[in-house]
Amino acid sequence: MNHIRNFCIIAHIDHGKSTLADRLLEFTKTISVTENQILDDMDLERERGITIKSHAIQMEYQYHGETYILNLIDTPGHVDFSYEVSRSIASCEGALLLVDATQGVQAQTISNLYMAIEHDLNIIPVINKCDMINAMPEEVEDEIVDLLGCNREEIIRASGKTGQGVEDILNAVVEHIPHPKGDEKAPLQALIFDSVFNPFRGIIAYFKIVNGEIHSGQEVKFVNTGGTYIADEIGVLKMELSPRQKLSCGNVGYIVSGIKKATEVKVGDTITSVATPCTTAIAGFEEVKPMVFAGIYPIEPEDFENLRASLEKLQLNDASLSFTAESSTALGFGFRCGFLGLLHMEIVQERLDREFNMDVITTVPNVSYKIHTKKGEIIEVHNPSGMPEPIEIDYIEEPIIRSSIITSTDFIGPIMTLCLSKRGNLIKQEFVAGNRVELIFDLPLGEIVIDFYDKLKSISKGYASFDYHTNGFQRSNLIKLDILLNGKQVDALSVLTHADNAVTFGRQMCEKLKNLLPRQQYDIAIQAAIGTKIITRETVKQVRKDVTAKCYGGDITRKRKLLEKQKKGKKRMKQIGNVQVPQKAFLEVLKLD
Questions:
Q1: Using CA atoms, how far apart are residues 279 and 288, in angstroms rounded to an integer?
Q2: Nearest residue to 268 (alpha-carbon basis) of 226, 324, 222, 219
Q3: Same domain, 241 and 142
Q4: What is the DSSP string of 114-144?
Q5: Is 287 a domain residue?
Q6: Cβ atoms of 351 and 44 closer than 8 Å
């Protein structure tokens, strides 16, 4: 156990974690020189150049004539995947803190660092991309010294592209990161930190052994779910799964036990032996709190069960996704899903399409609100259609986030304007180093879920970094905005919005729908309403047949008679006709600016 080191790489998005991981794997001869980002094996990760999943891999390293086993976990950098990072940190003893030499310390760097310090991880600071022309290693070193309070000599200068400093990093891992602590003689206790679904072998769970040891063929039990299984195969995570007969305390490995149902494996569960069970389960990770909610519905109603199975398999691989069944009059049966952010929602949609061939419609994303009724009850609502009647509501509370925006001084004005337009409240402003400033804002979560991050990046030319955590609930003047088509409410288009924005938002939605709804044989009235008050209206004009074309000359009453007959038919048609909202309209309304 003294020769095992478990560590992860934490950094802001795009600071070169996956590229540096490639160089570490090459240097330790785990892989030969191949394409870049070898751990990012998902098509989506390669296309977008982001890490979505944490990836674990084992390396062997010779140091002073002795062989050390290094278990590396490469983590995502985007704020939407911070739950993946928290799980990686819980299964490590140390972390490489990576900072881009051209960008310096950014918001997610600080956020992930605090998470690592809370878990008592030993931090090794590394400056990456030192080979670039616009690198500023001296200034970045000053920022890291301010942040960590470490000595300048401890900071390693490296480059994921050229391989500079890779040997220094591996030596530092062996010297500064402690070996895992545990008792090999104690009953087996292993923490599940991830799992994947394999169509041929069932569910493969990844674990870290905290105490005891596990053998191939041993009967094991999952403590929280209570299921017992035979360990058909155990092993370590190399580029491929590498089977072993026995894994001892401190190791990271995988278990194949022929589990078919996704619900039987929970990330954060404890594996123990049936013969000599442990007395307590390991404290897992904190429960994930979804930030953004949206309905996901199959385009074909008969695909509902397939969608459920796909979401369960996806949840194995992405434990931060949560979902419950719901129904809508406009869209039929589907699921109300909880996501960590808008990018997370987009990735889940893409993965459903690519990995499971599921065509889905996603409704307007919204957040959860607390509604206080006049009877003194508190109702949590994730969906505007689940709201009680306006006369029963005393007041509504919305979730607030404490956000940290790090930017250069050139962009302070536009960023402040953006945050204030989103009903933000400036808490403090402080200089980090040089011309870089950190703005701390309290913002309503509902205001940032749609397009805040994109706008922030465009007005700061990509230089502002954004990170947030929840900061409780706050009383707010919110109202439910309904969209009516010919007097019938379309529940999938209802939104909760602030009273100040309601009229503008309602008008924009009606104008957008007017251009998207196909014309019918009768007029379609599109109305936005707050309660019983109609605030705006647009009309999709009817398609008319020229019924008077056959009248040549003659008395005007002949034409009027034909027009009256047509009018009666249209009236009857309007009473029995239903307006169908096409899928394209739902998707376009989501993109409202």
A1: 26
A2: 222
A3: no
A4: HHHHHTT-EEEEEEE-TTSTT--HHHHHHHH
A5: no
A6: yes
Q: Residue 313 CB: number of other CB atoms within 10 A?
A: 18
Q: Are 159 and 61 part of one and the same domain?
A: yes
In a domain? residue 87: yes
205: CATH:
2.40.30.10
Residue 69 lies in a domain: yes
The CATH number of whichever domain residue 537 belongs to comes to 3.30.70.2570
Could you give the CA distance from residue 465 to residue 340 in angstroms, rounded to a whole number? 17
R_g of the chain, CA atoms, integer Å: 29
Same-domain status, 431 and 490:
no
22 plus 139 within the same structural domain: yes
Whether residue 472 is found in the same domain as residue 486 = no
CA dihedral sign, ordered 505, 506, 507, 513: positive
Of the candidates 68, 321, 90, the one whose C-alpha atom is nearest the C-alpha of residue 210 is 90
**Closest by alpha carbon to 90, among 52, 121, 54, 126?**
121
Nearest alpha-carbon partner for 42 in 358, 360, 356, 351: 351
pLDDT tens per residue across all 593 residues of the chain: 788 888 888 888 778 877 888 888 888 877 665 555 555 556 666 666 677 666 778 888 888 888 888 888 777 767 667 777 777 787 788 888 888 888 888 777 777 787 788 888 888 889 888 888 888 888 888 888 887 888 888 888 888 788 888 888 888 888 888 888 888 888 888 888 878 888 888 888 888 888 888 888 888 888 878 888 888 888 888 877 888 888 888 888 888 888 877 777 877 788 888 888 887 777 766 666 677 788 888 888 888 899 998 888 888 777 778 888 887 766 778 888 888 777 788 888 888 888 888 888 887 777 788 888 888 888 888 777 777 887 888 888 888 888 888 887 888 888 889 888 888 898 988 887 667 788 899 988 887 776 677 788 778 776 677 777 778 888 888 888 888 888 888 777 777 788 888 888 888 888 888 888 877 777 888 899 888 888 888 888 887 778 777 887 778 888 888 888 888 877 776 666 666 666 666 666 655 54
Q: CATH number, domain at 351? A: 3.30.70.870
In a domain, 278, yes or no: no
Q: What is the CATH number of the domain that holds 168?
A: 3.40.50.300
Tokens of 451: 């397009």
Buried/exposed code over 79-105 (b: 16+ C-beta within 10 A; e: otherwise): bbbbbbbbbbbbbbbbbbbbbbbebbb
* Distances, alpha carbon 118 to alpha carbons 94, 104, 339, in Å: 12, 23, 24
Give the count of domains, the chain: 5
Same domain for 217 and 314? no
- Domain around 90: 4-176
- Other beta carbons within 10 angstroms of residue 214's beta carbon come to 23
Dig out the tokens for 256 from the structure. Answer: 């194949």
CA distance 192 to 206: 6
Claim to verify: residue 484 and residue 574 sit in the same structural domain = yes
CATH number at residue 451: 3.30.70.240
- Tell me which amino acid residue 519 is: R
Distance, CA of 573 to CA of 576 (rounded, Å): 5
Q: Which of 402, 400, 369 is nearest to 469 (CA)?
A: 402
**In terms of domains, do 346 and 387 share one?**
no
